[in-house]
Amino acid sequence: MTADFALLLLAGILSAAGVYLLLERAIIKILLGIMILSNGVNLLILAAGGAPGNPPIRDRTWGDNSIDSDPLSQAMILTAIVITAGVGAFILALAYRSYQFTTVDEVADDAEDTKIAQRSPTDAWSAPDRDASDDHTTGLPTELGDHVDYDDEDLEEAEAEAAAEARAEAQARAETEARRIDLREKRYKDAGKEEDL
Question: Does the predicted TM-score (pTM) go above 0.85?
Answer without folding.
Answer: no
